[in-house]
Amino acid sequence: MRVMVIVKASKDSEAGKMPSHQLLTEMGAFNEELVKAGVMLAGDGLQPSSKGKRVRFSGKKRTVIDGPFTETKELIAGYWIWQVRSMEEAVEWLKRCPNPHPDQGEPEIEIRPVFEAEDFGPELTPELKKKDQEMRAEIARKQR
User: Fold this and answer.
1) Are residues 3 and 73 in contact, defined by beta-carbon separation less than 8 angstroms?
2) What is the predicted pLDDT for the residue at 14?
3) pLDDT of 89 higher than 90
4) In whole angstroms, how far apart are CA 61 and each of 55, 114, 121, 144?
5) What DSSP string describes 94-109?
6) CA-based Rg of the chain, rounded to a whole angstrom?
């Protein structure tokens, strides 16, 4: 199963404060373990919300909202995509993760399963499934 591991933002990450050399070293070592184990498929840190935008949908109307956004606890500072056998395995890996915000109280990292094609049931017709597979193959070709 694939999971998305969501690192929540902190006051420091939203202020654009970069991680310490020590944290970068620890996270780098953790990421190496994930890669060697075949768990990590992707992962990145995100710039502060002050550099982002949101698009609000209302019927056919789209409204662009410039960052920064309030409610730091609802914002994301980074993510991983992992391939694991179970949610329990993801939790075990995450327990080994360095604290991403050691000076910010008790940060939380969220783990959410990624939908797979079979999760959509009969609504994902063979035609739609084929188009999805073709799109994913094209993405993979472009990443080479």
Assistant:
1) no
2) 93
3) yes
4) 10, 29, 31, 37
5) HHTSPPS-TTSSS--E
6) 18
Which residues are CB-neighbours of 4 under 8 A, at least 6 positions away?
A: 79, 80, 81, 111, 112, 114
Per residue in 90-134, pLDDT tens?
A: 999 999 999 998 877 778 899 999 999 889 999 999 999 999 999
* Mean local confidence (pLDDT), 16-33: 95
Structure-token pair, residue 55: 């698009």
Q: Please determine, for residue 73, whether its predicted confidence score (pLDDT) is greater than 80.
A: no
Q: Alpha carbon of 49 to those of 11, 103, 109, 144: distances in Å?
A: 11, 20, 18, 30
By CB atoms closer than 10 A (0-12, 13-18, 19+), residue 6 is middle
The C-alpha atoms of residue 93 and residue 133 are separated, in whole angstroms, by 29
Joined tokens for residue 138: 């094209």
**CB distance 108 to 101 below 8 Å:** no
**Per-residue confidence (pLDDT) for residue 34, from 0 to 100:** 98
